[in-house]
Write a structure and sequence with these properties.
about 140 residues, alpha+beta, 2 helices
Length: about 140
Amino acid sequence: MSVFLRYLLFQLPSWALVTVLLVALALSDVLPLWLALAVPAALIVKDLVVFPRVRIAYEPSVEHGGGDLLGALARVDTPLCPEGYVRLGPERWQARLTEPAGRAASGDVVRVRAIDHLTLVVEPEAGDACEPEGADHV
């Protein structure tokens, strides 16, 4: 199915609902008929004009699964013993150390080694000298 057709099918219910409601108001003499038809027409034109900007949201995409997070550096937000939270750029993630008996203090740098559902599996970064990307921009 084409991206444009998918977009139109997604917009169709709102166009129909607005049109039915406004025509009902026009038939009840609450609105003039020209307004009841002009508003849905404007809504359709607006959606067609916006389509090039939102097209990417309707394109089929490959499941990302967070693979781009693997190997990233993060800063420990709450102590990991072995679970807690880390900051990866501006985001706060639940994290768990690879070693169940391990610990990492707040402010330590860790590297993402795996992802388990919505939990990052991390290990302490050797030589805390590396600055994680975006960690201090929080």
